[in-house]
């Protein structure tokens, strides 16, 4: 299903409330909540609302386990552009999550060990019962996570090469495209699909053409987000600008 909201502030709150509901209902059952998280501009409002719910309404993340979708490769954790730093600054430093419950693909590994590391990442997700909810943004290439055009629907966590357009879109953060890493470690389409619930968010006119393809276009590996049409557990949450090219 597709839900369209007046603006991204209202839409982000809806997503935060959904996350809070899952955490609270799993807490009541004495179970952990396993969240798949994204970085980038899109989820910042969701994280801001979660922080508010924690500080003002007592929402606790003590029983929450998180797995981030991706990280640039190579990338030092302390670097300005690292997703470790992004998550700390935009969410983790402001809530009561246990540090050992946080998982983000490691951009500092030697190439030789990445394949094993990626398999272990998948096993860690399974070992805690799988993802209860995965939140996603979407790139202008149609990527989810960093699953660029050509990604297989059953792909797992792996090292990938970033699309040129994705590197161009990231160039501002890195002070030029030439400084954007050419690779990333990302959960696969298959990994994302195993989540019990998936929410893809998109805001602004800039995302309208790719949202049209993702929601209404032919299902194709050239636009990886179109694979989401095959799942019954996906919700597209859009602001009116991102939805403006839907028929
Ligand atoms: C980030 C990620 C990417 C972004 C996408 C949109 O962890 O997996 O797929 O969600 O590139 O980025 P923004 O939100 O900055 O437009």
UniProtKB/TrEMBL annotation:
Transmembrane segments: none annotated. Residues 12-229 form the Glucosamine/galactosamine-6-phosphate isomerase domain. This is Glucosamine-6-phosphate deaminase. The lineage of its organism: Bacteria, Pseudomonadati, Bacteroidota, Flavobacteriia, Flavobacteriales.
């Amino acid at each position: 299903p597709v839900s369209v909201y007046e603006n991204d502030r209202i839409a982000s709150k809806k997503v935060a409330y959904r996350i809070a509901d899952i955490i609270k209902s799993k807490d009541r059952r004495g179970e952990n909540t396993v969240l798949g998280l994204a970085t980038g501009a899109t989820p910042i409002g969701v994280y801001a609302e979660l922080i508010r719910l924690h500080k003002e309404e007592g929402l606790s993340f003590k029983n929450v386990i998180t797995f981030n979708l991706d990280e640039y490769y190579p990338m030092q954790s302390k670097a300005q552009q690292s997703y470790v730093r992004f998550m700390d600054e935009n969410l983790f430093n402001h809530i009561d999550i246990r540090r050992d419950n946080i998982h983000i693909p490691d951009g500092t590994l030697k190439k030789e060990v990445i394949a094993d590391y990626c398999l272990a990442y998948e096993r860690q997700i399974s070992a805690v019962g799988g993802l209860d909810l995965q939140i996603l943004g979407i790139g202008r290439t149609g990527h989810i996570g960093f699953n660029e055009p050509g990604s297989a629907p059953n792909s797992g966590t792996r090292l990938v090469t970033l699309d040129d357009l994705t590197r161009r879109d990231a160039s501002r953060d890195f002070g030029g495209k030439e400084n954007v890493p050419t690779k990333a470690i990302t959960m696969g389409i298959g990994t994302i699909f195993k989540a019990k619930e998936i929410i893809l968010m998109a805001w602004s006119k800039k995302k309208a053409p790719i949202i049209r393809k993702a929601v209404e276009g032919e299902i194709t590996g050239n636009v990886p987000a179109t694979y989401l049409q095959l799942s019954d557990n996906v919700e597209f949450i859009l602001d009116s600008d991102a939805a403006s090219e839907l028929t």
